């Protein structure tokens, strides 16, 4: 059996080319793609998914009892966003920063007997819904 040297060297060349492609495909390209994916870590606030919830809606006026309002700042997947500044309007201007679960807690007191309608803003955008707290 006679071996054709041109065919043999062509086969070796193809094998070397495939090894180079395999090396590039398994080592360099995935690292670059992985870096690109990791760079996108900013979570956008979803206005429709975020929540404004009254935990304790009624308290005695006089500054001793507290009404409690929670704001949950969420992304479009329902995951809480940490470190967002939440402004609560309607009983003065109050601010709180969200925790690891996206929750901002507001404990409210009033010296007046009255109702307050509250709304929340994050990044300059008003979240859906309002909460009414009552001091009697």
* Rg over CA atoms: 30 Å
Order of helices and strands: HEEEEEEEEE
CATH architecture of the largest domain: Sandwich
The assigned structural class equals alpha+beta
Helix content: 25-40%
Mean pLDDT: 84
- Could you say which overall geometry the principal axes of the C-alpha atoms support? rod-shaped
CATH topology of the largest domain: Immunoglobulin-like
Tally the beta strands: 9
CATH class bucket of the largest domain: Mainly Beta
In what range is the share of β-strand residues? Answer: 25-35%
The CATH H-level homologous superfamily of the largest domain: Immunoglobulins
Number of helices: 1
For the record, give the distance between the C-alpha atoms at the N and C termini, rounded to a whole number. 105 Å
How many domains comprise the coordinates? 2
Residue runs with pLDDT of under 50 for 5 or more positions: none
Biggest sheet record? 6 strands, mixed
Characterization of the model:
This protein is an alpha+beta fold and 136 residues long. It has two domains: 1-41; 51-135, Sandwich (Immunoglobulin-like). 26% of the residues lie in helices and 34% in strands. It contains one helix and nine strands, in the order αβββββββββ. The chain has one helix at 5-39; strands at 51-56, 58-59, 67-72, 85-89, 93-97, 103-108, 114-122, 125-126, 131-135. The strands form two sheets. Strands 2, 4, 5, 7, 8 and 9 form a six-stranded mixed beta sheet that branches. The protein has a three-stranded antiparallel beta sheet with strand order 1-3-6, with no helix packed on it. The longest helix has 35 residues, at 5-39. The termini are far apart.
């Amino acid at each position: 059996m006679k071996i054709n040297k041109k065919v043999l060297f062509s086969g070796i060349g193809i094998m070397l080319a495939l090894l180079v492609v395999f090396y590039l495909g398994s080592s360099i390209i995935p690292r670059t793609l992985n870096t690109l994916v990791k760079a996108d870590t900013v979570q956008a606030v979803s206005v429709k998914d975020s929540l404004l919830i009254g935990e304790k809606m009624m308290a005695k006026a006089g500054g001793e009892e507290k009404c409690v309002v929670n704001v949950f700042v969420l992304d479009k997947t329902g995951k809480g966003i940490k470190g967002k500044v939440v402004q609560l309007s309607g009983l003065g201007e109050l601010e709180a920063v969200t925790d690891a679960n996206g929750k901002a807690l507001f404990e409210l007191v009033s010296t007046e007997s009255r109702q307050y309608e509250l709304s929340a803003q994050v990044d300059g955008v008003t979240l859906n819904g309002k909460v009414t707290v009552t001091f009697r």
